[in-house]
Amino acid sequence: MEKGEVSLKKYCEKYGFEGIDIVYILLGANGLIGNEKPIPKFCEDVAKKAKTFIDIINRDCPKAQIRLMTMPVPSVNGGTGASYGAKLPYCDDYGLAVYTMELNIAYEKLSNGYVKTVNIPGQFDSEYNYPCVEKPVNARSTKTEIVGTNGLHPTVDGYMQIADAVYRDVVGTINNL
After folding, report:
1. DSSP 8-class letter at 30
2. Residue 70 Rama label (left phi>0; alpha psi -120 to 50; beta)
3. Are residues 164 and 113 in contact, defined by beta-carbon separation less than 8 angstroms?
4. CATH assignment of the domain containing 133
5. Cβ contact 148:79 at 8 Å
6. How many CA atoms lie within 13 A of 77 on its CB side?
7. 147: helix, coil or strand?
8. Per the domain annotation, does 152 fall within a domain?
9. Could you list the residue range(s) of the whole structural domain that residue 139 is in?
C-alpha cells in the first residue's frame, strides 16, 4: 500500500470491525470538468479509475460485495448550467445525457462476481427530483412552466429516491446470502 492510499482494512481495524459486507459507491459527474476527449473514451478512462478503487476495496475486504451505482439521467427541465456559469461541458443537456448513458455502460462492464451495478436511472424521476422553479412562459402570458435550476444535484426527495434504490438492493442482496 502506498502512502496516502485508501485502506478499508486499516479503517476496520481502527474501529473494531471484522470486515465489510457490502460497499455502495456513487460517483458523480464532477469528473467531467476539463474533459477534452470523445465521450466514450473519457467514460472508459473514468471506469478504469473506478476499477482501481474497486480493486483496493476488494484487496482489503475480499468478502465484500461491491455495488456501483449508475448515474441518474440529468434533469429533463434544464438547469445543468445554472450553478456553473454555463461554461462547463455539463451545460449541454444532450451531451450530458449521452455522457451519463455512456458512463453507465462503462460501469456495467465492471460487473463480475463481487461487483454489481445498481440501476439508478430506472428508479429515479429525473423530471421532478431536481431543483426547479415555476416561471411565466413569456412576458405576456399567465401560463407557467417548470424550469430547472440545477440539473445535476437532486433535491432531498431525489436523494431519498436514490436511497430507496439502495435499500431495495440491500434487501435483495441480504435475501440471497
Report:
1. G
2. beta
3. no
4. 3.40.50.1110
5. yes
6. 18
7. strand
8. yes
9. 8-175
41-74: pLDDT as tens digits? 888 988 999 999 999 999 999 999 999 999 998 8
From the number of C-beta atoms within 10 Å of its C-beta (0-12, 13-18, 19+), residue 27 rates as middle
pLDDT 10s digits, 155-176:
999 999 999 999 999 999 888 7
Identify the pLDDT of residue 93: 75
7-16, 80-89, 98-107, 120-129: least confident range: 80-89
The pLDDT, as a whole number, for residue 19 is 82
**What is the reported pTM?**
0.84
Q: Is 32 exposed, middle or buried (0-12, 13-18, 19+ CB in 10 A)?
A: buried
Answer yes or no: is 2 within a domain: no
In a domain, 23, yes or no: yes
All residues at 6 or more sequence positions from 50 whose CB lies less than 8 Å from its CB, including other chains: 25, 27, 68, 107, 110
- For 68-100, the DSSP string reads EEPPPPPPTT--TTTTTTT-SGGG-HHHHHHHH
- The C-alpha cell at 52 is 482501481
Enumerate the β-bridge partners of residue 25: 68
Task: Report residue 105's pLDDT band, with 50, 70 and 90 as the boundaries.
Answer: very high
